[in-house]
């Protein structure tokens, strides 16, 4: 890292339109692999609110909460959890990460997040996605065969609800609306909506056509492999008549920050390996993620955001060269990792990483 990149930057609040930093959680309930302890759902919720409060006080821009409908995750209702967070925070924006829109009623989603917007004085956002898990389809009476069609119809309806306080609409998967009152209305002129994208060009193209932000999950590998998705997104948006500056990209990644890269890798590895085994399919042969595999995932070229503040700065700036994104969001709290370590990562992201990235990106090109 060059010496000038280690100098102090002006506070983020002084930089209009600055690059945004976020924290998100899926609220997994996992045993700590080192102690064997497992938090209750109640205690996990309390940790999530505490993390959001800390992020707000540290100057992080966005806090996200995911949605799952299974016993090894604490959060099934992001707007309820975010409403609690709204009362404990002052400035941080509050988003789902993501709302599983295919198995939700867009009217109910809009009303819930509009309520959150009012309670938070205009801080609500929605990241809508198809979802990485499918347990909500049978739970709420939807057919998995309709996976794509459900999302397409519902994302279009959700966006229309931003436009008017009365709605007449007809579709395939919910009852028709006839001059229906959509209440309450958000405090913001419209709820910001992003589409969460994993790895499919079709999802990226849809986000572009709709003219909404794209939250791109890059959980491993070389970020350059995801560049075509960003290109598809922006090209589709411009073809659909949307302004380039409105086609915002957020990058979301797993991560962990410590004073040194070696410390970060040593501390994070057992929790990451546990999380991979429990939630990401583990090794194809059922084996635990080897330390050598983890080292490869965390190397300076690849996307896993694990390392010292300097290394994380380098990774974000390198990704910005590829994507021109305006937001980076990290998931720190996975695999039963203690809250104290999550808190330390949040502090380092806010105080060591964010100011330098913002300053570097504000320099004339």
Written account of the structure:
The chain starts with 19 loop residues before the first strand and ends with a helix. The protein has 365 residues and is an alpha/beta fold. The N terminus is likely disordered. The chain has a single domain, classed as Luciferase-like domain (TIM Barrel, Alpha-Beta Barrel), CATH 3.20.20.30. Helix 6 runs parallel beside helix 7. It has 11 helices and 12 strands. The longest helix has 24 residues. Helix content is 41%, strand content 16%. The relative contact order is 0.15. The protein has an 8-stranded parallel β-barrel with strand order 1-2-3-5-8-9-10-12, surrounded by 8 helices. It has a two-stranded antiparallel ribbon with strand order 6-7.
Topology of this structure?
Blueprint: E1 20-25, H1 41-58, E2 62-65, H2 78-88, E3 93-96, E4 99-100, H3 106-119, E5 124-129, H4 136-139, H5 147-161, E6 166-169, E7 177-181, E8 193-197, H6 201-210, E9 213-217, H7 227-239, E10 249-257, H8 261-279, H9 291-297, E11 305-307, H10 309-323, E12 327-331, H11 339-362
Short précis:
The protein has 365 residues and is an alpha/beta fold. It contains eleven helices and twelve strands. Helices cover 41% and strands 16% of the residues.
């Amino acid at each position: 890292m060059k010496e000038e990149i280690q100098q102090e930057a002006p506070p983020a609040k002084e930089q209009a339109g600055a690059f945004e930093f976020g924290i998100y959680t899926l609220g997994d309930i996992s045993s700590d692999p080192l102690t064997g302890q497992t938090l209750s759902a109640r205690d996990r919720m309390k940790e999530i609110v505490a993390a959001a409060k800390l992020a707000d006080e540290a100057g992080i821009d966005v806090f996200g909460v995911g949605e799952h409908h299974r016993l090894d995750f604490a959060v099934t209702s992001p707007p309820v959890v975010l409403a609690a967070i709204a009362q404990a925070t002052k400035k941080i924006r509050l988003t789902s990460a993501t709302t599983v829109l295919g198995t939700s009623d867009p009217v109910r989603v809009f009303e819930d997040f509009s309520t959150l917007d009012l309670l938070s004085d205009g801080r609500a956002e929605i990241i809508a996605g198809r979802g990485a898990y499918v347990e909500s389809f049978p739970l709420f009476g939807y057919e998995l065969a309709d996976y794509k069609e459900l999302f397409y119809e519902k994302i279009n309806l959700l966006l229309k609800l931003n436009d008017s306080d009365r709605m007449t609409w007809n579709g395939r998967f919910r009852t028709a609306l006839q001059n229906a009152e959509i209440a309450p209305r958000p405090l913001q002129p419209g709820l910001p909506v992003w589409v969460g994208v994993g790895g499919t060009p079709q999802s990226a193209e849809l986000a572009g056509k709709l003219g909404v932000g794209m939250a791109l999950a890059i959980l491993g590998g070389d970020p350059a492999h995801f560049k075509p998705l960003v290109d598809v997104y922006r090209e589709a948006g411009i073809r659909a008549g949307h302004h380039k500056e409105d086609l915002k990209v957020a990058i979301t990644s797993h991560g962990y920050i410590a004073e040194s890269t070696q410390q970060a890798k040593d501390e994070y590895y057992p929790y990451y390996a546990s999380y991979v085994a429990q939630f990401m399919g583990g090794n194809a042969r059922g084996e635990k993620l080897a330390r050598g595999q983890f080292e490869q995932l965390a190397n300076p070229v690849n996307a896993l955001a694990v390392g010292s503040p300097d290394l994380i700065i380098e990774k974000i700036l390198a990704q910005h060269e590829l994507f021109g994104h305006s937001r980076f969001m990290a998931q720190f709290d996975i695999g039963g990792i203690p809250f104290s370590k999550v808190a330390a990562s949040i502090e380092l992201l806010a105080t060591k990483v964010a100011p330098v990235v913002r300053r570097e990106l504000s320099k004339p090109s």
